[in-house]
Amino acid sequence: MSVSAKKAKSLIPSPFARTRKLNEELLSVRPEICIERARLVTISYQETEGEPMIIRRAKALAKILREMSIFVQKDQLIVGNQASKLRASPLYPETEAGYLERELDLFSRREQDRLIIPHEVREELERDIFPYWKGKTTEDVALKAIPPDIREIFEHEHPTFCPDIHLKGSIGHVIVDYEKILNFGVKGMREKLEEKLKNLDLTQPENSDKYHFYQAELIVCDALVDWAERFAQEAKKLATLEQDEEWRVELERIAKICQWVPENPARNFREAVQSFWFVHLPLYIEQNGLAVSPGRLDQYLFPFYQEDKQEGRITSNQAQELLECLWIKFTEVMRAYDHNDAKYFAGFSISENVVLGGQTEDGRDATNELSYLCLEAEKSTKLSQPNLGIRVHHRTPDDFLLKAVEVISEGRTKPEIFNDQIGITSLTSLGVPLGDARNYSISGCVEPVPPHCNGMTNAAMSNLAKALELALNDGKCRLCGKQLGEKTGDPRQFTSFEQLMDAYRIQVTYYVEMMAVTLNIIEKVHAHIMPLPYFSLVIDDCVEKGKDVTEGGARYNYTGPQGVGIATTADSLTAVKKFVFDEKKLSMSELIEALDENFEGREPLRQMLMNEPPKYSNDDDYADEIAREVGVIYCEEVSKYRNTRGGRYRPGLYSVSANVPLGLHVGALPNGRKATAPLSDGISPVHGTERCGPTAIVKSAAKLDHVLVTNGTQLNMKFSPNVLSDEKGRRNLADLIRTFFDLGGWHVQFNVVSADILKEAQKDPDSYRWLIIRVAGYSAFFVELDKAVQDDIIDRTEYQSV
Questions:
Q1: Which of 142, 488, 514, 545 is least surrounded, with the fewest CB atoms within 10 Å of its CB?
Q2: Is 416 considered catalytic here?
Q3: What are the two backbone dihedrals, phi and then psi, of residue 224, each rounded to the nearest 5 degrees?
Q4: Chain centroid to CA 378: how far?
Q5: Mean pLDDT lowest for which of 11-20, 312-321, 670-679, 790-799?
Q6: Residue 556 belongs to what H/E stretch?
Q7: Is 447 among the catalytic positions?
Q8: What mean pLDDT is predicted for residues 228-251?
């Protein structure tokens, strides 16, 4: 056993030997590339040239499910693998072929999200895969469709926004209607599709597309059942060879389960969990979009658990062990990001969000026994997935919130906490009926979505601080001198702070418009060449409409780009207002000269800007109101636009790990930040500016208009482990959460780890492969993060009290 595996064994607290073993096996794996999916999808596309695209997509998925390698891992109660090995990343040449070819030499030696590429895999990619996909990927097609002047804005060496996640990947960020398969089985879905086809009037011109859509859905249904049957046969075969009697019995049970679900409705909790996984995993096999999230797992699985418990067919311990097996399966899902996106979504970010608690559609508390068991499963495993959260409202039981805080206090980084009042109000403001709004889930990091929704909630990352840099330089990039924004005038001629804010708004307005044009073109390309028949099978109302999810088949359709660096921007504006316009300690000419020279030779001025002005996060209205205005400007501009699927744009204020790479594109700023330094993350303070403690931070953060930020905000906080080591400390944290939510905050998450441990992990990564850290809306293995991201996390203020 390796040193890292031994270290992990001592720190995995599960009471079950089974899941301790599975956890250790997972942690010992070095991620690598799996070529099987790329091979099979390429062959399928070659075989189906000339057929309707949605049929080609369905046949491609069917070929993958019927021919990919499958395996049954010993002691794992749940079957279904994404790739041919544990923690191997499949490839999706439909969207990725361009960057895979460009960066083939980089994957195994890059600092962030390193992936081993076996020699034979490399040879096959270069010989058989890359040549076929030249000019055919979503990136190839979209870049040709986007006007050159707009392309220049985001392809520039210092862009104001980054649309790569959907330019080089699929949609992701959805929660499908798992209950459909759990309760009716694939057989029930197939009967509905056959009825739709039978009643389709092909004399109506619009119905020819529906005909192909329904045919594609039937292909997918059959493939899903065949895939499950393959696992049944594999388990049967293994059972005949197995010497361990206990595992032989489990293999026989697995075989029977896989022969029943997902084709038929689940009859008990074990079948429901396996059926869920058979529904969930192909969503990551069909496409490479991240954050396809399970949503309210404790709600749709609870009836199966409750009946089994009442009938004496299962104990809570057996259910928890099964959930721990599921938690491990979540962490197996992988994606090979390109070099740039690996920095924006560092740590193999997948963000499969499970959210617990909350309310029923009629407004009652929804917390149940399974909600607690899910927290126990999280407590007993030490993994980056799922991205666990809880929903809190005024009637949430105190013991449930305290249980969540207990899990957080043990360094699990999860769950993150969400405020029902804000989430529900935000969705109803978009026209979502109250019942659906109360039934919201979290898609990915912090984004509230109603059921039956294609939210495209992480559509792009936009750089708020870059907009301020441009406003302070007449639209020119301070790093390269190129005109990237609108000409808003020489700031030396501004006679009021309002003129600067007007210039800032103009820069934001300009790049948000360019971003919306870009994203809408990318959406159209996906609908044209990358339809998703399996997604469409399990998201209402695609089957009812006979329309693919990429074309607007879902009931709700959103596009959600994020603004990054709000605290950096607000503190910079505050410094200008205070020193240039209010107190006149500094002329605009002096400030501009210092920024042009990156504060070289002006360290006293830089220290004054860093230390003397009011700062966001200290419950000081002078700074906090400017932060609120920065957020409102971005939200108002984003909310003006409509997407190609008939839905609205939703603004968010969170960063994932993009605050670090986006900072590389921003020159010096008036808060004393030097050029290329990281930006603030989410709505968290600039590091080191929190002078008045955690309560002041949440009071400042709550002054932002969280209802207006309909795609979510993200607040990171880090506490010393000693602070939460006793019941008093944990109760204080629960009270802080309630206070924040009473004031109107949406989301908060915590790291409970000392900077000393993180620094040790940097020095000796093999001994700390188990160490999970909260990045920004998601968790990751700390040692798999780029050093720049690690340093940014270490630099976060570590609070010594609540």
A1: 545
A2: no
A3: -65, -40
A4: 18
A5: 790-799
A6: strand 556-559
A7: yes
A8: 98
